[in-house]
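We treat protein structure as text, and this decision shapes the records that our systems exchange. Because each token names a local backbone shape, the row as a whole describes the fold. For reference, a complete record is included directly beneath this paragraph.
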Amino acid sequence: MNTTTHISAAERLGRWLGRGWRGYACRERRVLVWLDSKGLPVAVAAALLWATKLVALGLLLYVAFWAAVLLLGVAVAGWAAAANTPDEEEWPFTDLTELRKSPGYDPNLYNDTSHELYTDD
């Protein structure tokens, strides 16, 4: 029996997300310190970062909205195309005798072996 514990995929994903969040928070603090060193008040810098986050969220929601509208349009178009197709393909000729009466009939094209002009090449 193995006594070592293995990290599950969920725990590995959680650690990865945690490292990403800590990295983002560290970079955000660095940006705040940099803006403070340039003479911008900390409250204004924090408001600027929040405004940037809100703009990014707005752009994400805008793109998600139009992607949803596009997918909905494709679904409606598919539904409309499926509703307008006939259940069975309708052949314009009802039987072989009517087909043979049509002008330019060639029995080889229709694989009509019972016709006298049919040739098997």
